[in-house]
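ingest -> fold -> write
write: protein_1
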Amino acid sequence: MGAPPREVAAVRVAVRRCLAQHLGRGERPLVLVACSGGADSLALAMATRFVAERSGYRCGLVTIDHGLQEGSTSRAAETVAWAEGIGLAPALAASVDAAARPGGQGPEATARQARYAALAAAARQTGASAVLLGHTQDDQAETVLLALARGSGPRGLSGMPQHRLIHGIAFLRPLLDVPRAVVRAACLADGLRPWEDPHNIDPSYARARARAAMPLLIETLGPGLAVNLARTAGMLAADVEFLEAAAARAQVGAAASDGGLLVAELAALAPALRRRVLHRWCLGLGAAPAALSSRHIEALDALVTRWHGQKAVHLPTGVRVIRRCGQLERIGRSAVLPRGAPADAPE
C-alpha cells in the first residue's frame, strides 16, 4: 500500500500527537469522535479509526440530533450506520433540546451547552476516556475574531483549548493546528460524502457571519490571517493558564473563614490578578460563565478599590455581594443584613 495523500497524513499525525499528549494507553482506552456528518468530523473519525487501530485505542462515534432541522433524526441514523459500517464501536446518536430559552441565552449558546452535556453523558455511558471534536485552525481563528468583536478579554481571545474537562469528561480538539482546507481535502481523499450544515452559512448566526467575513479580511490583511489569529490564541492561552494558577493561589490567601474574601488581601493584588480572583470566586458562588460579564467583575472590583458605600452587586444567579466588616460577602436573593452588622463605612 502506498503512502496516503498528504492531507490524510496531516490529519492522522494531528490525531496521533493529541492522543499521545493527553491520554494514557491503559487497557485499550475508548475514545468517542463527535461527528455531525460534516467534512471536518468525518475526516476526524476516519483518522482516529486509523490511529486507534495502530496505537492501542478503541474508537467509537457519537452524533447529536439537535432537532432544529427537518430530517435531522434520519441524518443522525445514517451517521451511526456509516460508523458501524467502518467498524467504529460503539456508535450512537443522542437527541437534545436545543431550543433557545426565553430571556436566556441565544440559540448558539443553548445548542452548544446541550450538545456538550449530551456528549459527556455518552462518554460516561460508554466508559470513554475522551470525546474528540473536529474544530480546525479556521474555527479557532473565527473564535478569536468573534471574541475581538465582543470585546472579550484574554480568556475569550485564547480561543478553544486543545484539552478541556467538561462535566468531568476530557474533550480533545486534535485539529486546531490543521487548516480547514486540509481537513476537507482529507475527507474527499477518503472518498467520503459530507453533509453541509445550512447553519454554517445562515447569517442569523454570529459564527456564520464571521466565517463569511474571513475571505475579505484575508484579502485585505494577508493570507496568514487565520494562522496568526490561531497562533495568538495559543500564546494567550499559555498566559491565561499561568495567571489562572496564580489567581488560584491568591484566592486561597484572600479567603475569609466564612467563604468571603478579605478586602485588604484583594487590594494588595495586582489588578489583573485581583479581577481573576473575583471571577473565580463568582463562579464558585454559582454564576454561569456565559452570563458573568466584565461589568460584574468591575463592580466587585470597585467594592475593593473605589469604596464609597455603594450597594450590593447583583450577580447573574440572583446572588448579591456586599462589602462588610472588611470583606466581600455573599447574601442570597431574599437575605437582609442582620441587625448590628452594617456594611463598611466609606473610606
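write: protein_2
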Amino acid sequence: MIRGYEDFLRELGRAGFSLAGGSAKGIWSVVPFSWEEQPYITDSPIRWHTEDPETDPWEWRMRVLEEGRGIAYAKLFFRIGGYITREWYPYFLAVRRGSMDFADCYAEGTLSYQAKRVYEAAKSVPRVLVPELKSMAAFGREENAAFEQALTELQMRMFLTICGQKRRRNKYGEEYGWHCTELTTVEQFWGEDFVLAAGELDPAEAEERIARRVLELNPAAKKGTIRKFIRG
C-alpha cells in the first residue's frame, strides 16, 4: 500500500510510468483511487487536496519536478496527467516523435497551426508560465479553447512538458495571484543529447517494450487501450 511520498517514488521507479489523478484508465496508477472515491477509502493515509506534501498526491506532481527526481509530469496519457521516469521516457518519445523535430512533424501535417504558435513562443525562452505563454503566442480571449488544446497537443506529442509552478510578478517584481503552471521544451527539460538518443530507438521495439511492461503491471489491460496509452 502507498502510505506516503517515498512509497510513491519507490513504486513509480519500479513501474516506470503511471496515470495521475487516481484513475488507472484501464492501464495502471500508483495511487488507485481518486478524490471522488477517497471518502470510501478508510484504510489509507493518502488524502487528496490537503496540501500535505507527504500524503497528498496532488502535491507530488510539482514536488517531483522541484526536487529534480528524474521524473516527467505532464498531460501525457489520454490527454490527462501522468508520470514517466527518465528510464522509460525515451521509449515513449521514440513512439510519439522518433527522430522528428517540431518542424518535421508540422510539415508532415500531424501538428496544428495553433500548436505551432504556442511552440515557437515557448522555445524562445528557457521556461515560461502558461498565462505569459498565451500572451507571447498572441492568443486572444476568444481563443481560450484553442490555446488549451494546443498545450495538451504539445504535451502529448512530447514537445512541451511541465517544469514547475510559480506565481506571476507585477512590474515591481512583486508576486501576486495563484500559482501558475510553468512549461519548457522537452529538450530543455532532459537535454538535447537525451532527446537525440531517444530518436535513435526503433519505434516498434519501443512500443513493444512499453506494452510488455503495461501487461506486467495490469495483465487485464486491453490491447486497444494499451495502444492508445502508448501512442497518445
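write: annotation protein_2
The longest strand covers residues 175-185.
The mean pLDDT is 94.
pipeline exit 0
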